Amino acid sequence: MASYLCLPESILLMVFRYLRLDELCLGARKVCKTWHRLSYDSSLWKILDLQHLCYFMTDEKYLSMLPFIADHVEEINFEGCKYLTDRAFLQGGIKCPRLRSVNFNFTNITFSGLQLVITQFKGLKGISLIGCDKLQKPEPGCYEVPGNLHRALQNLKQLQTLSLASGDTMLGVLLDEESTEENFEQEERNGIVQLPLQCSQLTALTLSSHRRLKDRIFIEMAKNCVNVTKLHIPLCTGLTDEGFEQGFQYFPNLLDLDICHTDVKDSGMKSITENCKELQKLSVCGCKYITDMGYVYVGLHCSKLEELRICTDREYVWPTEASITDHGLTAISQNCPDLKHVEICRCSCVTDAGIISLAECCSGLEHLSVSGCLALTDASLHALSRCCKNLKVFTASECVQLKSEGINLLMISCPLLKHLELATLHYLDTVSFKDVYAQNDVAAFSHSQAGCNDMITSMDIVCEASCSSETQLAEMPSTHSHVEPRHAFQFRHLDLSLCSKIDNHSVIEIAKHCRELQILLLRGCHLVTDVAIATLAENCEKLQYLDISGSSTSSLQLTDKALLAIAEYGKSLEFLNITKNLLITESGISELLSKCPRLFQLMLTVDYRLHVPFQQVMKTVIEYHGYSNYCHPSAEDGTCMGLRQAGNVTLQFPSLLKVKLHRVLESKVGGNISWCAQPKF
């Protein structure tokens, strides 16, 4: 058998691109000389993503590694890095000649810092400044009011993508106490109107929450946006139908439009669809004044539509508010056959008739979200199973009339299905793949032995309080051993939260057939016991996110035996929620922390009256992670934070490999570092 060390270097580099920082620098780099050399390849350093390390990334750590990647990095994501200052954003004077895109979302970059960034990197093609509070508010003790942000941005002549968000200010324009509304409007007009004119290559523009964006200014701006193909203006409540009707005649090339939570009406939708016939993506979530007539216009004029989002804000729509019905959905379905992505969550007026029409007319559908559509039944699932074989994502949480038969048929009939959300389906009592067994002529899996173990587990629970820690940490019986799969399914994400009838049988079925599972939510599934969780842990080795917490009304009966199995096999686990499991002990937590090297976040219930006191948990965390500042306890109630005695606690810390990496950065040991995006949950 050929060794993996003999793989061509081009293949190895493709594999390395999927590795995270700790895995590349502390794992792959140490395997052999060839891997060490390849880990410095420039192709691995084009994207520098700091978002998932924002909790402990400081100026010193960032600047210590930058010299080794500065010549290669093209895109930097600083999102959420609250501990970084302008010193880091300015790269400490280190030149990054290839830098073309920067994301400053939710950072503390200041206006003066941004001006220097723009001066230093005039070749930027993309910049995002959403949630940057210090751009709009002077620092304490600073009496200098920042200048106009748009004037600084106009210096980026190659800018193609711009994202801004503002509550009361427009493009960072700040007024002193003597400023008037007229001055403010004039500054807005000069800025927002001139920006796309000066940045002639601008193709994607996001202006979120700009309540001062009025019709006249929007229309003047639109005249200079003939090259814009992506326009997102959600929460711009200052716009009326006048702005929509007159402004969108200047967007002939628009492909992607987001007008969520605006006051657009049917007349505005008519103008938008008539002038933007090339639209491929449309988001109108929370637009409560659009009726079926507005959606009919979408069907009539936007035949190339591929993505559509029409979610309402409330679970129940009042009679005075508009919402899409079967008539509007059918009009879109019949005229937009290329639809691949549809979200119509919490649209209570949509019934089986609308979904059946969608399934029959749009057979290429890949993503469908109908969560909160209370009128849907299994008839919709039968239509989707029959017509939409390319379905990859399906969310139907709170569709309370859906039952096991329809759900199981959908899972079996759609072989590409990867993402399934079925929270709060009280009629879902069984997840079964028995039809697949028949097709493969395989006998059904017997759970008689599992049932016996459940009885044993139940007996253990009764006497749990009196057991010694050694007894609690006894090895699990071998009955949950590795199960050979009979059919491979592609599921990566499965949400069964608050499906109160889901039991061990269903979880074991999932473990047998969904080996690629990465995210599983079983919150409130109180019939699930240690045996099912142990089988799941052993068979789903790629599991990264696991929620086995109790609900607000009842706790789960899981014990340390479940934690032992997770600790033994959960080498990929990054997030674990075990709140409202009152039978676990500190010994189980200790075993978990010592054997799960990638665990980043742990949620649990602590109580001095139980087996998991807060102080002992913190002591255990510090023992295994060696750095107490990595722990960020927070509670759903004030009891735990105030007295640190009882409550639900969230502990966030880098994995054991990240702790080692932290020490490398602390000691400023050189070496190229690559940052790869992790899944967002």
Automatic annotation (TrEMBL):
Domain F-box positions: 1-48
SMART domains in UniProt: LRR_CC
InterPro entries hit by this protein: F-box-like_dom_sf, F-box_dom, FBXL15_LRR, Leu-rich_rpt_Cys-con_subtyp, LRR_dom_sf
GO terms classed as biological process: SCF-dependent proteasomal ubiquitin-dependent protein catabolic process
GO cellular component: SCF ubiquitin ligase complex
Gene3D superfamilies in the cross-refs: 1.20.1280.50, Ribonuclease Inhibitor
Record PROSITE patterns: FBOX (PS50181)
S-adenosyl-L-methionine recorded as keyword: no
PANTHER family, per the entry: PARTNER OF PAIRED, ISOFORM B-RELATED (PTHR13318)
The protein's name in its UniProt record: F-box/LRR-repeat protein 7
